[in-house]
Amino acid sequence: MKLKQLSIFLENKKGRLWKAINILGEAGINIRALSIADTSDFGILRLIVPDPGKAKKILEDNNFIVKMNEVIAVELSDQPGGLASVLKILNKSDINLEYLYAFVDEKEEKAIVLLRTEDIDHLINVLREGKATIVPAEYVYNL
Questions:
Q1: Label partner for 35 (CA 20 to 30 A): which of 25, 44, 46, 121?
Q2: pTM for the whole thing?
Q3: Please, what are the domains in the chain?
Q4: Are 111 and 76 in contact (CB under 8 A)?
């Protein structure tokens, strides 16, 4: 149910993003989803990959600072209001998101949104009570 997500600290220097992505590509690790947030000094690259442990080790062996944490994937309609329906469930339960990012699952013609909160187990319970469709980790890893 919970997906392992890698958060990679990137200095805001030319070629740093390319290097991280290239290292994973050369190791045969396919990226399922990604998000990047940046400031003038650094960025945080968030990735979902099929083998997060292997990817973390490869990146660390190449002098990247990597943290692994958990996110939840929720399926929603790929149409106007789809995301709002999930956020409504969270709003009713007073859940504050740290961040989210999304991608489209073309096989199922659905969107998948990745959610991160401080209390992942509580998030899962609230989503279940709200009848949201939680996507199994293995499904996302194998897209």
A1: 121
A2: 0.90
A3: 2-69 (3.30.2130.10), 70-141 (3.30.2130.10)
A4: yes
